[in-house]
Amino acid sequence: MRRTGVIENTRGLGLHDHACWAYDDLNDFRCRAREFLAEGLGLGQQVWYVAQGDAEPLVDDLRDLDGMDLALRVGAARVVSVESAYPAGTVVDPVAQARAFVTAATQAQMAGFTGLRVAADTTPLVRTADQLDAFARYECVVDRCIARYPLSGMCAYNRQQLGEEVIAQLACLHPNINGGTAQFRLHAANHAAASLNGELDMTTVELLSLALQRADLQPDGDELVIDAAGLTFIDHRALLMLADRTGRMHKTVVLQTDWPGAAPLVECLDLKEVRVEPPEWR
Amino acid sequence: MFHGAAVYSSDDELMNIVVPFLQAGLEIGAPSMVVLSEQHSELVRSAMPDMSQLSFLRDPYLRPASVIKSVQQFLTGHILEGARQVRILGEVPHPGVGMPWEWWARYEATVNHAFDQSPVRVLCLYDQRITPGDVLDDVTQTHPYLMTADGHHIVNDRYRRPEAFLTQSRPTYSDPLEAAPPLIELRDPVPLAARQAVREAGSTTRLPVADVEGLVIAVCEALTNSICHGRPPVQLCLWANPDRVVVTVTDCGAGPTDPFAGLLPAATGPPGGLGLWLAHQLCSLVTLEKTKDAFTVRLVAGKPASCHLDAVKADAAAPPPRG
Q1: Which of A183, B64, B234, B290 has an alpha carbon within 20 to 30 A of A128's alpha carbon?
Q2: Residue B266 pLDDT more than 80?
Q3: What ipTM did this prediction achieve?
């Protein structure tokens, strides 16, 4: 099962896990990337370190990790400069970019690795509004790929450079986030259209609206099933937003949650487009 | 619509009023919803020759917003099935039966607006022997018709339009727990902090989790209204004993402009109305209090203090209860 929650470090994440790490200084990013990649090597994954700056000095960020020298020599580890891979101002193509990682993960498996693990500081790819929107959509697409293919990823963003609002827009699309970045998380789930966790209220209305647009959730038949096992609060604004989006498709939202407020709220609002069920894993 | 009040002082008087009301409904095929105590329901069952059009609700009136919604559903359902009229017969709670009156007074006024153009006849019953005088005074101001003990009705010349009744200055309600300093006091809290405070307090009580989460939703809605539509600072105060949690949310604004806020949904009306309406359906008591420079929403989970308004004032002067 994919791990989901608020994390204090990037240790203990396995295949299919996807984390967002907002950092305030570069040393914090390096530290989290190193622990994330070192565990990946231990799990037999090919690891990629994608960061800002020239590739050669970036190698030094990793070199003292156990086994990293050898890994770099034999291709088990790879260092990529963001600037060389993505020229300034690049607006990513969400699907093409995600497809590239799936291909790389498949090739890593064919080469004998258990999968591909990428730690990337993608701050330069979300500096403009267009870049941010495209990359946020990419985060949704790649999260679905990570849930399905032998991939794991750590996406790092510089909070000082991007600001809290941009960080929240990106963090809320990840299953794992560090504290204080987003109040809720909307991300991929294997057995549902999406997972929705955390708390949704007046402070998250715009963020949820953006997240829903970018995630572009697709119903399965007549229902849009949302695994909300980690949902601990949703106010009527967020609930009406979910109902409205699916109502326009003439579909029903199935909210799988054991939060005791959900069913009474749906009943009070008489929302025919929303059905509350216990979480499926029970 | 017809909205009448009947004040009776014996079971015989009650039956003299109730039976003709229901009988008249039966004669024109009008379905009736009956919301009485079990004892009075039994009396009605034994007195009515034909029960086919009568629906007895097992639960008494608990929350006015939910009652209005139920009546609307009852009305709509039967009209769609071809009924030309429906009848509602009920005993409205008040301090004489151990329930606070504030939101039921607003209910009685709001019914006149909610069903103004509807083919519904609503008869509200009050036992003179146990109904406080100030409640009866409100009853007189909120019912366009009064039933006499012989089952006839007269036009009530003391009736006030609901907007006028609801916007007048009224006695304020407070819970006896409020005589003590609050357990939690937050100034300008974000909704997440307010929810955490309510959950923390709720976890120390005997209340079911569902009741606590209902209060969590209601507090969040009241706070959201204060932040979005009121004026700062916003003050949240919380009191609790093992059986009850009381929260007040106060801002420096004028409160909702809609006199029916809380009892009727206002999704397309003035802002904030939907949240208050939800709060009225999820709490065991919601009171609204406007003063010259503040607006307070009081939200209660657990059985509200069973006291008369005057008794509340007396309790407030007494030492705080333990808990």
Answers
A1: A183
A2: no
A3: 0.91
